[in-house]
Amino acid sequence: MEQVLQQIDQYRKEIDQWVIASAEDLENYRIRFLGTKGVVKALFGEMKNVPVEDKRSFGQVLNDFKQLAEAKYEDHKGLTAAARTEGPAIDLTLPGDALTPGTRHPLSLVRNRIVSIYQRLGFAVAEGPEIEDDWHNFTALNMPENHPARDMQDTFYVQRNPDWVLRTHTSSVQARVLETTPLPVRIICPGRVYRNETVSARANCFFHQVEGLYVDKDVSFADLKQTLYFFVREMFGQHTRVRFRPSYFPFTEPSAEMDISCTVCGGQGCSLCKHTGWVEILGCGMVHPQLLTNLGIDPEVYTGFAFGMGVERIAQLNYRVNDLRLYAQNDLRFLQQFTSGT
Ligand code: 2NL
Question: Which of 90, 167, 169, 254 sees the fewest Cβ atoms within 10 Å?
Answer without folding.
Answer: 90
